[in-house]
Amino acid sequence: MAADKAARGAAVEAAARRHLENAGLSWLAGNVRYRGGELDLVMFDPAAASLVFVEVRYRRDTAFGGGAASVDAGKRRRLLLAAQLYLSAHPVHAQAPCRFDVVEASGEPPRLHWLRDAFRADDC
């Protein structure tokens, strides 16, 4: 069961990455783990000259809310902390504007919905 969930998560993250790359973003890193938080995807948006931290959320059924609804205040704080740690570890990006996006995936096969600038650091 856990292996199935991990495989589903990896497949959805790969699909989200392809979707974002097809939209013009460049992949920098994936599954970046820090104590207290993880970044699913780290991308660069050349059109906005911005670093993009992407949370990918899969829901088989959206009856209880979509993926973006599950990115609550606690999750946003953990993402912000992980982003700060990423920037500390990669000083070349430290001065770049940043944003937080969410890619929702739902159904079988998964349908993707990209929410740009889903939340801001001020919201955390």
Describe this structure in words.
This protein is α+β, with helices and mostly antiparallel strands and about 120 residues long. It has a single domain (about 1-124), classed as Trna Endonuclease, Chain: A, domain 1 (3-Layer(aba) Sandwich), CATH 3.40.1350.10. The protein has helices spanning about 1-20, 75-90; strands spanning about 25-35, 35-45, 50-60, 100-105, 110-120. The protein has a 5-stranded mixed beta sheet with strand order 1-2-3-4-5. It starts with a helix and ends in a 5-residue tail after the last strand. The model has no long low-confidence stretch (mean pLDDT about 90).
Q: Which class in CATH terms?
A: Alpha Beta
Task: Characterize the overall form.
Answer: globular
Low-confidence stretches: none
Q: Could you tell me how far the N terminus lies from the C terminus, measured between alpha carbons in angstroms?
A: 33 Å
By oligomeric state, this entry counts as: single chain
**Helix content, binned percent:** 25-40%
How does CATH name the architecture? 3-Layer(aba) Sandwich
Count of DSSP helices? 2
Number of domains: 1
What is the string of SSEs from the N terminus onward? HEEEHEE
How would you summarize what this structure contains?
With 124 residues, this protein is an alpha+beta fold. It has two helices and five strands; from the N terminus they run αβββαββ.
Q: What's the topology here?
A:
Blueprint: H1 2-22, E1 26-34, E2 37-45, E3 50-59, H2 73-89, E4 98-106, E5 111-119
Parallel strand pairs: 3-4
Antiparallel strand pairs: 1-2, 2-3, 4-5
